[in-house]
């Protein structure tokens, strides 16, 4: 590393930077033995400007009788040198044997500047260096700061960095310190290889680790930057993955890294010794604690005979068992798992041993490193407090909860001895990170068109663990805003309170003739029943209103001089389409009127819905964003009628099961169903019905399946249904010929489903519409029927037809967010269904 100088002080400054301090030992200074009889007050000081004489004298501590001996003088000299305040310290003999301490003070730093740094801001570098403006200049400290700056750049992936400190002398013994930085280019990971893996492909293992290879889109991410700490963490991720899949003897022997000067990057190689794959042979429970029945813990075991041996299941079982033993009054019980391998049968006999642990109590819980987050936000994640029995399982659970908060870069809980042998002190070491997000999102889909969103969120508001988010959406067919607030610990209980205020506007498009505007408020409570089971209770109140273009609601329904309002019997008698030759046209809809249920909703104006609901979620997915194994089930019910203008009971269930197959192919089975039930005598609205399309069976347009208005001259709106079912089978596979980091994979699938049983309005009394201001032009012969009465002109298809399709998809986990392209071909469909073979959707945050 280059260490350059720019001096205006001659040879002395050069010696300061490149030579050791000029210090004369006692022997070289020829201090005579007469100095032994001197006292501290007989020491004279020369050359000091800022440091007081008494301060320098204080480093010389006399022995018995107040006299200075040779040892005291030596110790004082060393102490002065170690202060770092002086360039040079000499001790000489003056007249009459007096001790003369001659010092040359270090300069004072006037300012610290950084030049050439573009990737890391001055503010960050200033906080990292030890040298400070108006502080004492120290050559050793400058050297340390130089190394520290270089290390910061290396952590950000720039290993070609060069840092050169420069000293500019100023009057009055002051200097300016300038660090000149040559940042160099980013040093990435050019290749990741695995040696010794046969059970899992290298492609699959790259999903496990956090380090990725550099590619054309790496400038949008940072996980391709070489970081030795990340690589070491990847070793543990690989080991844990193998242990989770039955490889009890696995060893990740080494993670070899080599810099390739030609590629200007690192090659990383993980060497793995897999061993054999084991299954669980037997599961047994033993106890050495009197009067404690270990079989009572069997219900808390997640280890099943015949299943693959899974270390994570064993660890979770131990945690649950130890907590349950504590609940039963055995506060010091310790559950220790054991396992005997059968190398021939490739099985592991698992034994959970319950023993009496040491009687240790928690004396204190010390939290360190939280400059912003309040102490109580951290302490409430513990199920134990000061004075309780020490329980390692509860401590591990607290550490996991703190990590899941996502407020901290690192979380580590250690123990230290307390004031006595049966006391321990818990030390919680934290490193905070930024928890605020400003997001500009954009997307496009064949359903919603172009869409943009701006949002601001904070996960740890005011350091109190609160979540708040505000967002504004503006798109081609959708607009609105939302405000969200979450208190994760309501009244100090582990119950999350959420509040949502939103306004959404859906504009008419090629799939629906009408627009809707919704303004709503929804408080909710969230409970974690188990690690894989959650419950949410909610109340929703929202106001909804339909809008129509004028030409779809202008009441011009007269053909010639007479109005015509065909009955369903008339339409059915004409094969589903009325004979218009004798009537001169279908009067109700001759100019393209919207469907009767839509017109009725328009006339009703604003409608208020007040509903209570809950959602029960069971989740065992291995990864929520990119799952390859596990089950996700959502069961939801909403009861409307707690006040408001509508009443119904809506039930929805959606289940997805992922399973790894062969050669990195993942299978997905999805089953979904829903039912809308009428409550009381109040009719169901069309807007409350289920509307389905590609969200149920791909290959169909939005609102493309189910009951539909059959009027050939109208908008033929989808009416929706009160019942639906759907089933999908999908195979997702990677493109093995492409680098893993590209994030592309393909899918083939088959869908089937149905939507049926429309129970909305089919007739409509038009008396009210005649008297409303907005329809004051609908009078006399221009209204259909000409006078107040009942319109019976809705003819619709309500058959229960099975829709099915097959297709292929392209899934891209892009830096712009998840994108998906689907091309599906319908195999069976209803007579009036609308298809859409190609579909695209996606979005981003940047």
Notes on the structure:
This protein has a 16-stranded antiparallel barrel. It has a three-stranded mixed beta sheet with strand order 1-3-2. A three-stranded mixed beta sheet has the order 4-6-5, covered by helices on one side. It has 846 residues and is of the alpha+beta class. A hairpin with a 5-residue loop joins strand 2 and strand 3. The protein contains 13 helices and 37 strands. Helix 8 crosses helix 10.
Descriptive labels:
alpha+beta; 16-stranded antiparallel β-barrel; 15% helix; 13 helices
What is the number of beta strands? 37
End-to-end CA span: 37 Å
Poorly predicted tracts of residues: 1-36, 556-591, 768-790
Sequence of strands across the biggest β-sheet? 16-17-18-19-20-21-22-25-26-27-28-30-31-35-36-37
Q: Strand portion, in percent?
A: 35-45%
> What structural class should be given to the helix and strand makeup?
alpha+beta
* Overall mean confidence score, pLDDT: 81
Helix content percent band: 10-25%
Molecular shape: globular
Biggest beta sheet summary: 16 strands, antiparallel, barrel
Number of helices: 13
Helix-strand layout with pairing:
Layout: H1 11-18, E1 43-46, H2 53-57, H3 70-82, E2 86-93, E3 99-105, E4 108-115, H4 122-128, H5 139-155, E5 162-170, E6 174-182, E7 188-195, H6 202-208, H7 228-244, E8 251-260, E9 265-273, E10 279-287, H8 311-327, E11 333-342, E12 347-356, E13 361-368, H9 375-379, H10 392-404, E14 408-417, E15 423-432, E16 436-445, E17 449-461, E18 466-475, E19 478-487, E20 495-506, E21 515-530, E22 533-547, E23 558-559, E24 562-563, H11 568-573, H12 596-604, E25 607-619, E26 630-640, E27 648-660, E28 666-678, E29 708-709, E30 723-734, E31 744-756, E32 764-765, H13 767-771, E33 790-791, E34 796-797, E35 803-814, E36 817-828, E37 838-845
Parallel strand pairs: 1-3, 4-6, 7-9, 10-12, 13-15
Antiparallel strand pairs: 2-3, 5-6, 8-9, 11-12, 14-15, 16-17, 16-37, 17-18, 18-19, 19-20, 20-21, 21-22, 22-25, 23-24, 25-26, 26-27, 27-28, 28-30, 29-34, 30-31, 31-35, 32-33, 35-36, 36-37
